[in-house]
Design a protein that fits this description.
Number of helices: 12
Shape: globular
Number of domains: 3
Number of strands: 32
Oligomer: single chain
Subunit structure: Homohexamer; trimer of dimers.
Helix content: 10-25%
EC number: 3.2.1.55
Family: Belongs to the glycosyl hydrolase 51 family.
Structural class: alpha/beta
Distance between the termini: 35 Å
Catalytic activity: Hydrolysis of terminal non-reducing alpha-L-arabinofuranoside residues in alpha-L-arabinosides
CATH superfamily of the largest domain: Glycosidases
Pathway: Glycan metabolism
C-alpha cells in the first residue's frame, strides 16, 4: 500500500501548542496509590477488619508458636487513626509472639522502620525482621528497645541483604526474651503503626515511578477522579499518623492518607510540572473549596496559609489550575446532579474560590452530551476558563463484544480518534455559539482506550497493547489538530489504577475485581512502561510549538459496526498524521500513526522548507497489534530511533502495521 504526505511548512498556526496537553493523572483508585507509593506494607495503621478467626487486622497475620497468645483490636493512640493491635504473650508459653505480613522487598536496601507502640513494663524489646518466607532465611533484623509503658514513636534502620519478592515482615517478642511471673497486666504489647520505607524513596513515592514519570515530561499533573467527590482535603494534611483513616466511597477500601495535598505538591515540584487540583463538588461546599485554595496559595497571615506553614511549608504553593466537579453527570458519582444544578454549584464554587485567590484558572465539568454543555455554559460560562471532557471510547459504541472477530475489534479501537474528533468539534461549536462563553477552552482531563463496555474486565491486558498505543497516539494527533481549543490533557491513569496506568508496577492489569494475587508472577517489584507510556514520552519530549497544514493521501479501512453510529465508518484513512514546527521553524516534527494492519509505503513532501539530507525517525512498533509489555517482557515494545536519509522519504519509506512514528527534520543551516 502507498501513501503521500504533503506538509506546508510556510503556514504555521497562530496558536501555540500548550505543553499541558501531555499531562497525566493520579487518583486514589484500586491499587494506584499502593503501586505508586514506596511503602511495601499495607494496613499500616491496622484499619481493616480481621480476615481470620484471630483478631488481627486485615493484611496482617498472627506470628506465634504460643498456644495461648491472645490478639485483639483496640482504639489507637491519642490523635491517631485506625486501631491498635494488641498482642498478649503469656509467660508460661515461653514462645515468640507478634504479627507478620507478606511483602516484596528491594535489596540490598536500608528500610526506615517506624513503630508506634506501648508495652507492659516487663517487655523490654521487640524484633522487626525480614525473612524469605520460602526458606525462612533471615534477610535482616533490627532490635527495637521499648522505652515506655505509654505510647511512643520509635524509628530504626532495617538493612535488607537482598531483594526478595516473597518476603515476610515480622514484628515479635522473641522466645528468648526474659520471662515474668504471670499476674494481672503483664505481657501485653500494643502496636498503633508499623511501616517500612526504603531509603531510595522520593517524597514517599517509589524512585522508579518518579524517574519514569520525570521522563514523561508531563507538563501538568492532575489530582482528581471519582473519589474526589467524597474527599475532604483537611483529612490529608498535617502529621500523617494523625490524619484520619477514611473509607474510599467511590472505589472501596481505604483512602491513602499518606498522599495528601503536601505530598502531591512535592511530587509535582519533583517532576517540575504544574499541579491541577479538582475540588470536592459532590459532598463538599464552596467554603471548603476556598479553604483548600487558601491552604495552597494563601500567605502565612491567612488562617489556612498559617496552617500550611505549621505543617512545614511556609511558602505558598501557587497552584493556578483548579477543577470544579468530576463527572457529576454520572450516576456513579457522589453528588450527581442535573446540568442546571451543577451550573448553580459551579458558579458558587467559582466565586468562593476566586475570592480566596483571584488569579485562579478554573475548569468546569463538561460532557460529551452537548445538552449538558449548553446548560453549563449558558448559566455559568462566565465563571470558568475551561470546559472538561472525559473521553473513554469503547466497543459498546460499535455494538461489539468479546465475540466480535479480533480484526474488527482492532479496527474499532483504531477508530477511537474519530469519536474524539466528533466530540471536540461539537464541544467547540457549542462554546463558540455565544460570545458570553466564547473565551472558554477545552481540557480533556481524562482519556484512554477502553476495550470492553462495562467495568468488569476479568484481567484482560488489552488496554496495554501496541494497538491501544496506536489508538492513544491517534487521540493525541486529534488533540494537536484541535490545540487552538484543547490546551490541557490528562492521560488516565499514571500508575496501575483503573484502566491500568501507563506505568505498571507488578502483576495487575486492567482488572476491577478478579485480578491475580499480587506477586503471582514472582516479579511484583518490576516497574515498566506500557506501549502507551512510550507514546506519551515520545510526544511530550519533541520540540513542537505550532501546527502545520497536512494533506494525506492513503489507503483506507472500514468497520462493520453492529449498530448505527453517528460517524462514518467506511473509508477511514490508514494514516493519521499531525505536523508541527518549533518556535523558529527550524525543526519540523511529523507524527504518523499507521492505524492499518498492513505496511504502508509513505512518501513525504515538505513545502517552503529546505531540509538537511538526514532525518531522525522515532518508531514504536512490534510484531503484532496485540503485543504488550509485562513483568516477563517489560521492554518488548519500546521506542527506537535512527537516522533515515531524506531521499528515502522521497522514494517512499515503509511504515509498519499498527505502529507510531515521530519524524524530525531539521532545516539547512
Amino acid at each position: 500500500m502507498n501513501a503521500k504526505i504533503k506538509i506546508d511548512c510556510g503556514k504555521p498556526s497562530e496558536h501555540i501548542v500548550n505543553p499541558y496537553l501531555f499531562g497525566h493523572f493520579v487518583e486514589d483508585i484500586r491499587d494506584h496509590m499502593e503501586a505508586m507509593l514506596a511503602f511495601p506494607l499495607k494496613d499500616m495503621d491496622f484499619e481493616s477488619e480481621s480476615e481470620t478467626k484471630k483478631a488481627v487486622s486485615g493484611n496482617w497475620s498472627p506470628f506465634t508458636n504460643g498456644r495461648n497468645t491472645e490478639y485483639a483490636l483496640e482504639a489507637p493512640a491519642p490523635r491517631h487513626s485506625g486501631r491498635a493491635q494488641r498482642i498478649r504473650v503469656l509467660s508460661d508459653d515461653e514462645a515468640y509472639a507478634g504479627i507478620a505480613q507478606k511483602a516484596a522487598l528491594k535489596g540490598p536496601m536500608t528500610y526506615k522502620v517506624k513503630l508506634v507502640a506501648r508495652a507492659s513494663i516487663e517487655l523490654k524489646y521487640v524484633f522487626v525482621e525480614a525473612v524469605d518466607r520460602r526458606s525462612d532465611e533471615s534477610l535482616g533484623r533490627v532490635r527495637v528497645e521499648l522505652a515506655s509503658h505509654n505510647w511512643k514513636e520509635y524509628e530504626a534502620d532495617l538493612a535488607v541483604a537482598r531483594a526478595c519478592s516473597a518476603s515476610e515482615i515480622r514484628l515479635y517478642v522473641p522466645a528468648e526474651h526474659p520471662r515474668w511471673i504471670d499476674h494481672v497486666s503483664t505481657g501485653m504489647l500494643w502496636i498503633d503503626h508499623l511501616s517500612l520505607l526504603p531509603a531510595d524513596n522520593i517524597g514517599l513515592v517509589k524512585r522508579e515511578v518518579v524517574e519514569m514519570t520525570r521522563d514523561l515530561n508531563a507538563g501538568m499533573m492532575r489530582l482528581a477522579g471519582n473519589y474526589i467527590s467524597a474527599y475532604h482535603w483537611e483529612h490529608g494534611v498535617g502529621p500523617a499518623l494523625e490524619r484520619p483513616v477514611m473509607y474510599n466511597e467511590a472505589w472501596g477500601g481505604w483512602t491513602s492518607k499518606y498522599f495528601g495535598t503536601d505530598e502531591f505538591i512535592r511530587f509535582c515540584r519533583e517532576l517540575q510540572v504544574e499541579p491541577l487540583i479538582c475540588v470536592n463538588d459532590g459532598s463538599g461546599t464552596p467554603e471548603e473549596a476556598a479553604q483548600w485554595v487558601e491552604y495552597c496559595n494563601g500567605g502565612i497571615d491567612t488562617p489556612m496559609g498559617a496552617r500550611r506553614a505549621a505543617n512545614g511549608h511556609p511558602e505558598p504553593y501557587d497552584v493556578r489550575y483548579w477543577e470544579i466537579g468530576n463527572e457529576v453527570w454520572g450516576q456513579w458519582q457522589v453528588g450527581t446532579c442535573s446540568a442546571n444544578r451543577f451550573a448553580e454549584r459551579c458558579a458558587s464554587f467559582a466565586k468562593a474560590m476566586k475570592a480566596a485567590d483571584p488569579s485562579l484558572v478554573l475548569l468546569a465539568c463538561g460532557h460529551t452530551d452537548q445538552e449538558w454543555n449548553e446548560t453549563v455554559l449558558d448559566l455559568a460560562g462566565e465563571h470558568f476558563d475551561y470546559l472538561t471532557l472525559h473521553l473513554y471510547h469503547g466497543y459498546g459504541r460499535f455494538g461489539m463484544n468479546r465475540d466480535t472477530p479480533p480484526e474488527e475489534r482492532y479496527k474499532a479501537m483504531a477508530a477511537y480518534s474519530e469519536w474524539t474528533r466528533r466530540d471536540l468539534h461539537e464541544t467547540k461549536a457549542r462554546i463558540l455559539a455565544n460570545p458570553k462563553h466564547a473565551h472558554v477552552k477545552i481540557a480533556i482531563t481524562e482519556y484512554n482506550t477502553m476495550y470492553y463496555p462495562n467495568t468488569i474486565r476479568k484481567g484482560l491486558p488489552e488496554e496495554h497493547t501496541l494497538g491501544a498505543a496506536a489508538a492513544n497516539a491517534a487521540n493525541l494527533n486529534e488533540m494537536l489538530r484541535c490545540s487552538d481549543m484543547v490546551q490541557i490533557g490528562s492521560f488516565s491513569d499514571l500508575v496501575n489504577g483503573w484502566l491500568g496506568g501507563c506505568i505498571r508496577v507488578g502483576d495487575y492489569y486492567a482488572d476491577q475485581y478478579r485480578g491475580k494475587e499480587p506477586g503471582w508472577s514472582g516479579f511484583p517489584l518490576t516497574v515498566y512502561g506500557t506501549p502507551t507510556y512510550e507514546v506519551m514520552k515520545l510526544y511530550a519530549n519533541r520540540d513542537i510549538r505550532r501546527m502545520l497544514p497536512v494533506e494525506t493521501v492513503c489507503g483506507s479501512f472500514s468497520i462493520q459496526a453492529n449498530k448505527p453510529t453517528p460517524i462514518q465508518l467506511d473509508a477511514l484513512p490508514d494514516l493519521d498524521v499531525a505536523a508541527c514546527a518549533n518556535e523558529d521553524g527550524s525543526v519540523v516534527t511529523v507524527f504518523i500513526v499507521n492505524r492499518s494492519l498492513q505496511e504502508v509505503n509513505t512518501e513525504l513532501n515538505l513545502d517552503a522548507f529546505q531540509a538537511t539530507g538526514e532525518t531522525i525517525l522515532h518508531e514504536i512498533t512490534g510484531n503484532s497489534a496485540d503485543d504488550i509489555n509485562s513483568v516477563f517482557e517489560p521492554n518488548l515494545i519500546g521506542c527506537t530511533s535512527r537516522i533515515v536519509p531524506a531521499a528515502d522519504w522521497q522514494r517512499g519509506y515503509a511504515l509498519r502495521p499498527s505502529s507510531i512514528y515521530a519524524l524530525e527534520i531539521k532545516a539547512q543551516a
